[in-house]
């Protein structure tokens, strides 16, 4: 039982909060489209209009206000979970230290009972830690799903209104799209539309 304190120090109290990242529209159709020149249709004025455009995903995730609020929510939950685990861990450490101080004067059956009790508490703390980490990850997954739905639904309507047949996403380091002409970049317009819609939702 003298090793109880050192065993406890092996518990990982930190809860990792992954950066919220959403992978938008990376299906096989999009993969094929990136290797094909942008299709074009002729507008009423006779000007060729591309039917394929793209969004810079890095810029979108940086400038979309919903992402900023979502990240803040996840960070707050992660910090609260970490503080809770740390508090419970410190309380357990104190109990172990108190036992180690008194064990020399305790009867054998009392020591055995206390060690069993501390062993159960250690197992409970480990289980609580795992459950807390899983809950944080579940919250993160749920938030990412909401983000994907918001972007997806907006882009569907946006493409319909503008007459686009396909909207791709570009992300630095993503081999699915190596190049896109700047004239096909509709990121700024999409970000503005998303932020306007989000501002209305918040009201």
From TrEMBL:
Signal peptide feature range: 1-20
Does the record carry Signal as a key word?
Answer: yes
Residues forming coiled coils: 96-131
The record ties this protein, via Pfam families, to:
OmpH
Q: Which UniProt keywords apply?
A: Coiled coil, Signal
Task: Report which superkingdom the organism of origin falls in.
Answer: Bacteria
What PANTHER family does the record tag this protein with?
A: CHAPERONE PROTEIN SKP
Q: Which family does it belong to?
A: Belongs to the Skp family.
- State the name under which the record lists this protein: OmpH family outer membrane protein
